[in-house]
Amino acid sequence: MDNAGAPAPIRAPEALRKKLAKIGLHCEADLLVHLPLRYEDETRITPVARALGGEPVQLEVVVVHNEVQFRPRRQLVVRAADASGEITLRFFSFYPNQQAALAEGAHVRVFGEVRGGFFGLEMVHPRFRKIAEGEPLPAALTPVYPSTAGVANSALQKLVGAALAGAELPDTLPEELRQRLKLPGFARSLRYLHTPPPEADVEALQARHHPAWQRIKFDEVLAQQLSLRRAYLARREQGAPVLVAQDDLGARLLDRLPFGLTGAQLRAMAEIAGDLAQPYPMQRLLQGDVGAGKTIVAALAACQAISAGWQAAFMAPTEILAEQHYLKLRDWLEPLGVRVAWLSGSLKSKAKREQLAATAADAQLVVGTHALIQDGVDFAKLGLAIVDEQHRFGVAQRLALRKKGSNPHQLMMSATPIPRTLAMSYYADLDVTVLDELPPGRTPIKTRLIADNRRQDVVGFVQKHVEEGRQAYWVCPLIEESEALQLQTAQETYEQLSADLPGLTVGLVHGRLKADEKQAVMAAFAAGSIDVLVATTVIEVGVDVPNASLMVIEHAERFGLSQLHQLRGRVGRGQYESSCVLIYAGPLGEIARQRLKIIFENTDGFEIARQDLQIRGPGEFVGARQSGVPLLRYADLELDAELVELARGVAEEMLTDHLELAERHLRRWLGSREELLKS
Ligand code: ADP
Ligand code: MG
């Protein structure tokens, strides 16, 4: 496995290989790091007479009698005995060859839990193996591997054993580093985990605290860090356009704004400006809580690209959001003489042709949805690719946008705050700028939790709110199982609210509306001619209507925390006191209760994310980015956070001082999967 070249395929029949591939086992090297879930002690034999006790035991018995009974249901009933007593083995499903193996007089070792039944001691569906009389006991604990239908544990055990026997397992950590980190050797750790001696501390092994596990988990995290870091460095080797502003476009935009930038925005702007002037592509993630003001920072970056004579692209995940960006950026920049183009799936063909032509010719900023990355979209001279709400895009999509230029600079934005350990794992290949300051004058959003039997009170609250000149969102419950049902609910809510709020204008927006219908509704809401906007979660990201200062969310218990935080962030954007009403339907499960408590008590997105991670695990945080990233199988980003920190430093050190070992380490852990990491 450590030889360069193609990984050695698993030596097994084609049918078995296919099944193994399903659980990620493609080559010999994969087998080596396919580690046991738990162990069974087959190194000892327990006499039948002492087998009752709740723990699985191994018996060695001779079959006395074997018959198939049909009552109360079909079953194979085997009587067997050792010198100390008799026991019944029951099988409710069995193959003829199993029945044959359990013929009278056969010597078998059976493994399982013994219980005291009406007819004496018995075992139901024990694992068993026919043996020759006097066959020696295994010297190591029996590993139980994660498996899939049709692959017996014993088969996996054999394959892994063979792979281990044939493998050279040189250590990929430099000795000096290994000692400094106080980690055991790789080969020793691996062999120990596959074949622990009978006296091993099984509990420490199964709980994965054992030093051998520490080593394996460290190696796994290290592989991830190495890979990300290497991808990062590799991109630095590529050339990129040097974007140095040739005029004062950015300054003129700043002059036109009705506000000054926050300190955090100024810092972000300076960092990005510095990156764009380098001869290698920027790969920066701009993170900032909902409402932190990422758009203007991106616009200023675009200005720099434009005044350096290049094009900038600005891609957003939904029509609504993309269009809103388009309108805002056009407002900001067209008066300054910038040519802004707009590409979305909903453009009529004539308009689309015009916009495509502009993109291929003299447009300076092109704003759009996924439409930007379709075939047939050619940029004349793309120098900067901006991706908003980047976690909503897949790796391939972000890559596709980059491919529209030759190594353009890349600015990605996200309002989904990511806890530090996650960020280190998933964004180690990016530079990260955090907008850690909200624009001044925002009034904190008051959050209320209201049970759904008081829904009428909420309606009254909306009424009063609109009478004060403000607007409100009313978000309908998320119905994951059925989009149709979700639409129906939105429609009904809309009708109900229209009836409950005579005299107010109620609007409805959902994912099934045609793009231009959606735009019309959003425009009417932005212009203030709709008072209450009933919406599905299509408004989750980015929408910005400062006069809307009330957010009502129905069935809040069904939403994820980051979603609730995003939704709540739609208000509190103007100078008006804002509130968010979370209507919940009881009885609440424990997790739902915890979530609502967290959102009620916290306004800081990072804190919410941190607590969310604790209840939910990392899966949903990184969104699309995680697709393709081989998830850590053994290490846990939260529990093993310390290892992640360590590995990050070690990865840098190895790529500088021990490149060859680093390469080996990557091959060992990632093999062909490494390609997938590059995004
Ligand atoms: P997000 O980071 O969520 O994308 P936006 O860029 O949409 O936030 O900004 C939210 C609102 O705050 C917008 O209306 C924007 O014009 C406004 N804004 C941005 N920066 C400032 C600032 N420094 N001072 C006041 N308002 C600002
Ligand atoms: Mg935004």
CATH topology (level 3) name of the domain at 249-435: Rossmann fold
Classified in CATH, the superfamily of the domain at 249-435 is P-loop containing nucleotide triphosphate hydrolases
Number of strands: 22
Shape: globular
Strand order of the largest sheet: 6-7-4-3-2-5-8
Commentary on this structure:
Helices cover 40% and strands 18% of the residues. Helix 8 crosses helix 22. Mean pLDDT is 88; it is low at 622-630 and 675-679. Strand 3 (75-82) and strand 4 (85-91) form a beta hairpin. The protein is an alpha/beta fold. The protein contains 24 helices and 22 strands. The longest helix is centred in the first third of the chain and has 27 residues, at 211-237. Strands 6-7-4-3-2-5-8 form a seven-stranded mixed β-sheet, with no helix packed on it. Strands 12-13-11-14-15-10-16 form a seven-stranded parallel β-sheet, sandwiched between helices. Among the domains are: 44-137, Nucleic acid-binding proteins (OB fold (Dihydrolipoamide Acetyltransferase, E2P)), CATH 2.40.50; 249-435, Rossmann fold, CATH 3.40.50.300; 445-602, Rossmann fold (3-Layer(aba) Sandwich). Magnesium ion is lined by residues 294-295, 388, 542.
Notable traits:
single chain, 679 residues, alpha/beta, OB fold (Dihydrolipoamide Acetyltransferase, E2P), Rossmann fold, seven-stranded mixed beta sheet, seven-stranded parallel beta sheet, 24 helices, globular, disordered C terminus, binds adenosine-5'-diphosphate, binds magnesium ion
